[in-house]
C-alpha cells in the first residue's frame, strides 16, 4: 500500500509540473524547438531548459552543454509529455523564459525524483 501511495504522489507532482508548463506556454513564456531554445540561450532570456526523455542522446548532450555554458538549469521530463503539455505535439525541447515559472517547474521536478 505504501508503494502505491508514493507512486500516486509522484504522478500528482508530474501532473502539476506538466500543468505549469502548459500555463507558461499559454502565458507566452515558452520558447519551443531547438532553434528557438538556442536563440533564447544566446539572448540570455532562457531561465530553464526542459528536455523530453524521447530526445536522442546526441540532442540531450548538446542541450546540456549549451545550458551549462549559459549557466541555465536543464531538466528532463517523462517521455512524450512536453509537446502535449505546451500544446505543440512532437516538441522535445523548450526554454522557460519567465523566472517565476522556471523556479516553480524546477521545484516540481526535484519533488518527482
Give the tally of β-strands. 4
CATH-assigned fold name: 60s Ribosomal Protein L30, Chain: A
Structural category is alpha+beta
- CATH architecture heading: 2-Layer Sandwich
Number of structural units classed as domains: 1
Q: Topology as H/E string?
A: HEHEHEHEH
Report the major sheet. 4 strands, mixed
Please give the share of residues in helix.
Answer: 55-70%
Mind explaining what this structure looks like?
- With 113 residues, the protein is α+β, with helices and mostly antiparallel strands.
- The chain has a single domain, classed as Ribosomal protein L30/S12 (60s Ribosomal Protein L30, Chain: A).
- Helix content is 59%, strand content 15%.
- It has a four-stranded mixed sheet, sandwiched between helices.
- α1 runs antiparallel to α5.
- It is globular, with a radius of gyration of 14 Å.
- It starts with a helix and ends with a helix.
- The model has no long low-confidence stretch (mean pLDDT 90).
Strand-helix topology:
Layout: H1 2-26, E1 30-32, H2 34-42, E2 48-52, H3 57-70, E3 73-77, H4 82-86, E4 93-96, H5 99-112
Parallel strand pairs: 2-3
Antiparallel strand pairs: 1-4, 2-4
Helix pairs in contact: 1-5
